[in-house]
UniProtKB/TrEMBL annotation:
Similarity field: Belongs to the HAD-like hydrolase superfamily.
Protein name: HAD-IIA family hydrolase
UniProt-listed Pfam families: Hydrolase_6, Hydrolase_like
Species of the source: Sphaerisporangium rhizosphaerae
Domain of life: Bacteria
Keyword hit for Hydrolase: yes
InterPro entries, A to Z: HAD-like_sf, HAD-SF_hydro_IIA, HAD_sf
Keywords, sorted A to Z: Hydrolase
Gene3D superfamilies: HAD superfamily/HAD-like
């Protein structure tokens, strides 16, 4: 690997890196505490657009991790930032929950079902056929199609649930219009996070447990990429991909000493 600058900023995925099935990964609390105490800029990233950062902060606290709301970056925030840059003060028809609607309101967007600039699809626990039909008709009428993330399924206690990517595919099939996905693996998610903490790609690390989202998007954004083996990717699977992380470690516990 080429010599890189010292790591000044840290980005970390949430599920599979800091928490696993609702419990903290061993060493995650010490890693987060070291980041806070060191004054290093950091963000915890998630493709989940359901919750606001404040909601997620409380949920993480329940799992034993103290992550302030301002240190959480969601696909909803990245989507809102992207739309604000593209069309400031625009309008959108939204399928999603508080994480997405709050983020859009905070950047000055108006939510409407009357000739919106965008149809924005996010995650929700209860996708409505009526809302999906409305989205299809608005896209047919000329609204641009944005989706927070391409994840096709999400977890639940009963098993897999259809997620944003699956519903987006339904809308695309009906309209012939492909959405622009803002969340991982789009490196736009990483770049928006870096900008949010005034970081630079050459001195920022991305920690993830998935080669096909966290690592590839971090690599495409020019970051130092670190794969942890506490999530979905096993060590023997790494070589199956045509790209490699900068580093592979067992867990975030192995990264504590890297935080100066």
């Amino acid at each position: 690997m080429n010599e890189r600058k010292p790591i000044e900023c840290w980005l970390s995925d949430m599920d599979g890196v800091l928490v696993h099935e609702g419990s903290p990964v061993p060493g995650a609390d010490e890693f987060i505490r070291k980041l806070r105490d060191s004054g290093k800029r950091f963000l915890v990233l998630t493709n989940n657009s359901i919750y606001t950062p404040r909601d997620l902060s409380v949920r993480l606290r329940g799992a034993g991790l103290e992550v302030p709301a301002e240190s959480i970056w969601t696909s909803a925030l990245a989507t809102a930032r992207f739309l604000s840059d593209q069309r400031p003060g625009g309008t959108a028809y939204v399928i999603g929950e508080a994480g997405l609607t709050t983020a859009l309101h905070e950047v000055g967007y108006i939510l409407t079902d009357t000739a919106p600039d965008y149809v924005v699809l996010g995650e929700t626990r209860t996708y409505s056929f009526t809302a999906i039909t409305k989205a299809i008709r608005l896209i047919d009428a000329g609204a641009r199609f944005i989706a927070t993330n391409p994840d096709a399924v999400g977890p639940s206690n009963e098993g897999s649930l259809p997620a944003c990517g699956a519903v987006a595919a339904m809308i695309t099939k009906a309209t012939g219009v492909e959405p622009y996905f803002v969340g991982k693996p789009n490196p736009m998610m990483m770049r928006s996070a870096i900008n949010a903490i005034d970081g630079h790609s050459e001195s920022t690390a991305m920690i993830g447990d998935r080669m096909d989202t966290d690592i590839v998007s971090g690599m495409e954004a020019g970051l130092h990429t670190i794969l942890v083996l506490t999530g979905v990717t096993a060590k023997d699977q790494v070589d199956r991909y045509p790209f490699r992380p900068s580093r592979v470690v067992n867990s975030v516990a192995d990264l504590i000493e890297l935080v100066d």
